[in-house]
Amino acid sequence: MTASIDFKRDVLPHLIAILIFLALTAVYFAPVLFEGKAMAQHDILQFKGGAKEIQDYREATGEETLWTNSMFGGMPSYLINTRYPGDFSGYIHTLLTFNLPAMAGNIFITLLCAYILLVTLRLNTWLSVVGAIAFAFTSYNFIILEAGHNTKSLTIAYIPLVLAGMFYALRRNVWIGAAIFALGLTLNLHFNHLQMTYYMLLMVLIWVVVEVIYALKQGRIADLVKRGLVLGIAAILAVGVNFGRLYTVAEYSQHSIRGKSELSVANSGDKTSSGLDRDYAFSWSYGVGETITLLIPDFYGGSSNTPLDKDSDSYNAFLKMGMPPVQAEQIVEQGLPTYWGPQPMTSGPVYVGAIICFLFVLGLFIVNKPTRIWLAAATLLSILLAWGNHFEAFNYFMFDYFPGYNKFRAVSSALVIAQITIPLLGMLALYRLIRDRVTIKDLDKKLLIAGGITAGISLLVWLFAGSASFAGTVDQQLQQSGFPIDAIRADRESMMRSDALRSFVFIALSVGLLYFYLKGKLSSTVAIAGIGLLVLVDLWGVNKRYLNDGDFEKRVVENHFQPTPADQMILQDKDPNYRVLYLPNPFNDARTSYFHKSVGGYHGAKLRRYQDVIDRHIVQNNLEVLRMLNTRYVITGDQQQPVQRVPGALGNAWFVEEVKTVNTPDEEIEALTDFEANKTAVVDVSKFKVPAQNFNTEGSTIELTEYQPNELKYAVKATQSGLVVFSEVYYADGWQAYLNGQPVEHIRANYILRAMPVPAGKHTIEFRFEPKSYTIGNTVSLVSSILLLLVLGGAIFYSIRKKPEPEKVNV
């Protein structure tokens, strides 16, 4: 039987919700949408620098290069900027976001996906709108946008859609649910921030364990297995759509710093057999006490650079030091390090909202047991993981033994789980309170207990804030620089007290609204609208501290990439095939890559061997290593002498006089400490069967005649057979060498470079980057994309034609 659709009942409320989300997005991001402004997002600017060569090649040829020489001597483009034509999910994302510009589109899609999740749980339209605001306006969603973590933001945004599909499949119609799940997971994977996907999988894993336990108790395990199998097929389809991206990244990750090191003495005992170093992975660990920022945003002083006003203690302290008022005002407005927590630095706290925390605690009392066990356990796991090295026993175990966990850093990001589970349980609690106020025993008492716990914590913080030290890790340096440290600590205390009182007020107001509703003094409409307004005001106000209209300006990208005098001097060299080292910040800056082929760059997953050479030789100023990388210029950062020419850069390729053989990677990298790069090639014979030998190079020449980032052509004149070393990074999974058009083997030399035996005579040598993983992966993506569109079309048709299954949602 065909289900009849009532426009006013079934369609109009959702259209209104979407209009509300568009309006909220438009107001918050008005400078972007209506004034043509943008924000200097750090990671986006770095991305534009690193991706410049890739994008130029795409624009010129219409093809993908898959390799770029713009960063770290050369690396695959997979994790920088690679398109997979077989993957249609990007078009679906554009459709769902109405092609809104970055940042605005990120928040809109977060609102929309959260709304879909809550609607699938049978919350009414207005509760779902309130819940969507609670999900989307969590402070972390805005702080990561300020930092430029746009793909992380979008990966998080689609997590609620994945959960919506699972809920629908397990509780209602399995086929429609599986289609929603496939769409959500496809889009979640599309943005390729696997750490966020990993956290989502941990959350789902806990849910599955709880589901299985209760299914066994209730005798419905067979039904659960059937529905789970359908979801499994949907997951395979989602992976298939993204297979091109996942396959190439998986291949590359083995060779990146996320993979296993080949050096036996690379690091201390904190290094795992594969994956990242512990110290590196746990460098951003959320403090145990810092967790209270979920309830009180500035409990630990906000950000590492917080603007203050003329009412601050710091401003008055500067005046007492004899500083002119104008200068004192400029200093405090530019920001002071008010953050005093254990992280090296932070752009702001993870704040889910005082009201949402209160509703979460209420949910622990009134939401059904399986759901609250799942969400409470996931929240606890999130907090424990975020503590990192402040909870070593648990987190070191996870890092060393839990599959894949040691591939990720900045463990404070694990609070992404909490920023989803806390609002979800909170909104389910509000839903039950509104729906079942008559049937839940002692609901008014439970309401007051939940409010008393959260408001009580806020009140205690307000009363006893003065007992904290407010001493930060940067204080000694600040004091040595002449900053009024006592005044800064007083401002930290003031911020804690102010936000504690602020949270107390929001909780008290929300408890009052709901209490009067329970007593029949207010309608459900007024109660929901009141809670929604309070949630919005609470979260909006905190987010504006970290991302506001003043952060946007015109011509951000153009201004950032104006060539400096140093760039202009180097660009006078019309030979484009050399490298540049940006000395002030070589390995955390990709701006240089916008103009030049850089020895350094900015990337969180550079090649492992290249990182080894950075650590062992480049940072130790090993000139021979810089010469073999064809480093012709150094940008010094000195205004008097902005550019220095590196003596003896070896060019694109050269014949060597001898092969020095070693037996291990340790010996290979150590041999670079004292060698002449123009004469000697160091080869690890455990990997490449090349004998130690000498060559006569007199009269032999090699010249780079054609350059594309993925194709290099050389003209060779060899008076005798010899070995050529190329100033190009060795990467076996894709680079193929050709001698006079015929494929030949090439080897690795000097730990990171390519080398190739060459017979006597005149020859043409070509290197082409032709990774099979891209071709295979893209084909699988194309087939899977077509199947996904068919599945989505079938689900839409099925949902229109069929009556929905009886509701099985129980919260």
From TrEMBL:
Q: What is this protein called?
A: YfhO family protein
Mind listing the UniProt keywords for this protein, alphabetically?
A: Membrane, Transmembrane, Transmembrane helix
Q: Name one Pfam family in it.
A: YfhO
> Where are the membrane-spanning stretches?
12-34, 91-118, 125-145, 151-169, 174-191, 197-216, 228-247, 348-366, 373-390, 410-434, 446-465, 500-518, 525-542, 780-800
Is Transmembrane helix among the key words of this record? yes
Cell inner membrane: is it a keyword of this entry? no
Residue ranges of coiled coil: none
The record, for InterPro entries, names:
Uncharacterised_YfhO
